[in-house]
TrEMBL record:
PROSITE patterns: S5_DSRBD
GO molecular function, one term: structural constituent of ribosome
Encoding gene (name): rps5
SUPFAM superfamilies: dsRNA-binding domain-like (SSF54768), Ribosomal protein S5 domain 2-like (SSF54211)
Reported function: With S4 and S12 plays an important role in translational accuracy.
Name of this chain's protein: Small ribosomal subunit protein uS5c
Amino acid sequence: MKSQENELIEKVVQVKRVTKVVKGGKKLSFRVVVIVGNQLNQVGIGIGKASEVISAIRKAIADGKKNLIQVPLNKNYSIPHIIQNSFGAASIILRPSSLGSGVIAGGAVRIVLELAGVKNVLAKQLGSNNKLNNAYATIIALKKLKSIQQTLKHRA
């Protein structure tokens, strides 16, 4: 377990200043979205809120490590099949791509796919440009993917 944690890479996607209105005025804090992955087949998303950016990043990384998922990849480091998913107003489409085409995606979707270890994929964001919702939509889509072995086992 220790060697796995050392291999994880963290990337900060968004740092947002948020306020809460209380009796004495406005209370300022920061919300940080971090993607954590090992570039092999594990990826997770974490959110942290604190009054300082550094402590919010630390909380987000800890949350991301708790929420790691396994991503089934085929032999040319692509996803096994086409998948479409939405989260809130954000909707994404992921398509497998041929060897050498690279990750064709934008924003938070690209970061999630790169840290998951997907090297050849076509992705399109539809609807919202919200980084958090697009990242969640990608994570949920990757969670729904089924490997070739799982599909064959289900058919038998």
